[in-house]
Amino acid sequence: MNEALARRKLLGILSGSWVAQGVYALVRLGVPDQLADGPKHVGDLAHQCGADPHALGRLLRALSLMGLFTRPAPDTYGLTPTTELLRADVPGSVRLNALMQGDEVFRSFAEIMHTLRTGRPAFEAVYGRPFYDYLGDNPDAAAVFNESMGDQRPPEALSGCDLSEARIVVDVGGGNGSLLAELLERYPHLQGVLLELPDAAAAARTKLAEAGLAGRSACVEGSFFDGVPDGGDVYTLARVLHNWNDDNAIAILRRVHAVLPPHGRVIVLEEFLPEEADPAGRSAAGLVDLLMLVTLEGRDRTENEYRELLGKAGFEIVDARAGVLEARVA
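Structure tokens predicted for Methyltransferase (330 residues):
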């Protein structure tokens, strides 16, 4: 790569936050939803969204020049297939994620020097308390977080897990119930239990009921640090352990270990960090780990690092695939 291309690439990286915050601001104003029926004049949009028409027009013009919005006529803007996903009412919407990224995440990254100097999440310096304590004190932020996490599709690696001989699956830290709902729909003989904090458990209860699965599921309110429901023969932990440091991750696994029967198994679903960097620089692996670095005490890990956690908690691996480790009591 010559110097000019390298410089252009680097400047694009450095200005990436400008674009992200511009998109966030439009989502916060509700612009994508206002454009659901087609392009509109910026004056009408500004009136509907409570924005200054000149400022809104400049932002939309900049983003349209990047291909994120269409400009079919002067001062008139519409959505592209990409920004359609910023609407609240479309499948696969990333609207809530955009809100979270633009608020708490952006402010945490602004204080990344705190993390690098102290080793502690910058989030705590910005908001005065750990991430989950903050959510407990801010119901609106908690709702955005829980719904944003619930909007994520169950891990693709789940498709390789065979639960045909299981009777009861317990989803530990199961969010809004998306994973449990998929398992119950795939295996009609299964009963399901979900463990979550009260707000998330309530959302899961609603989701499972809407899916017609209330009769085959139960949502238990509580913290997995205090214990997990017994009676299951399969326990799932999907994108849970990466939220915690090693000591706490092992503590969670030991709670599962304490109730897992000899024939049972725990299924850990995570995005494994690669052991080596992509020489072409095309992999985005590691970016989520940066998010964890500034917001939470947790981190993403390699497969071997997750194996070590399971071993320290008293498990032995019985199967391993990309994004999945299945284990039983050693």
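DSSP finds 15 helices and ten strands in the chain.
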